[in-house]
Design brief:
Elements lengths: L8 E6 L11 E7 L5 H9 L17 E5 L11 H7 L13 E5 L10 H17 L3 E9 L6 H13 L3 E6 L6 H14 L6 E5 L8 H12 L11
Parallel strand pairs: 2-4, 2-5, 5-6, 6-7
Antiparallel strand pairs: 1-3, 3-4
């Protein structure tokens, strides 16, 4: 199966929301604790091993990092059917092109950084989630072996309150048996409150478990129509 997220490229690393690319098009944010495997997941999904920095020291992502995906206009109209098979992001004939991006949010909750920087991250992530009009959904990364932490719950609560779609990747599934992973996934889905626009799956960047499913979920979020705008803060 072809990779619809292939061709992702680093654009910039922003210390503040105001430094991100122009707020147009569509983007999906990746959020999660610093030790949950967020960078590895991004690399696996895009098929680019060096796209997001990975390290044995959690918390190396200390800015909002924006990655661009190939614009829709790069897909020749004359090959629309083939393009739909290779790149599900492609626009239908006659529709305008759309800029698409992935945004890696700073890892939270584990990094050994000054309290002042932690507070800066908290404020900027909050501002990003509330103000970013091109944001179509969140991919939340969490270690399948552990219960959701406070930050994870806060992110789900935000998505619930604003109606923002969320896809939960339960990473490091290769550390569990297939039966254990299935039980963890079922328990997670059962814990979602009614009305939460969230999906969940097991995932392992090491074993390749769930990679195609996750790619399809990201594409679905990018193609999600924008319903309303978050309140500015």
């Amino acid at each position: 199966m072809s990779n619809p997220l292939q061709g992702a490229q680093f654009v910039l690393a922003a210390h503040r929301v105001s430094q991100l690319p122009a707020d147009r098009g569509a983007e999906v944010a990746f959020a999660g604790r610093s030790n949950a495997g967020k960078s590895s997941a991004l690399n696996a999904l895009t098929g680019h091993k060096g796209l997001a920095r990975t390290s044995k020291t959690p918390g190396r992502t200390q800015q909002m990092v924006s990655f661009s995906l190939p614009p829709y206009k790069d897909v020749p109209v004359s090959r629309a059917q083939d393009a739909q098979e290779r790149l599900p992001l492609a626009q239908a004939e006659g529709e305008p092109s759309l800029e698409v991006r992935l945004v890696d949010l700073p890892g939270y909750g584990y990094a050994k950084v000054p309290q002042e920087l932690r507070e800066h991250w908290r404020q900027e992530i909050d501002r990003y989630l509330h103000q970013r009009r091109s944001l179509r959904g969140v991919v939340l990364i969490a270690d399948i072996r552990h219960p959701l932490k406070e930050f994870d719950r806060m992110m789900l609560d935000f998505c619930f309150a604003t109606g923002l779609p969320c896809h939960l990747l339960l990473t490091k599934a290769d550390k569990l048996s297939r039966n254990q992973a299935a039980q963890a996934l079922a328990a997670m889905r059962k814990s979602f409150p009614d009305g939460l626009h969230a999906t969940a799956q097991v995932f392992s960047s090491t074993a390749g478990t769930g990679v195609d499913e996750a790619r399809a979920a990201v594409v679905a979020l990018l193609r999600q129509p924008r319903e309303g705008v978050h309140q500015d803060r």
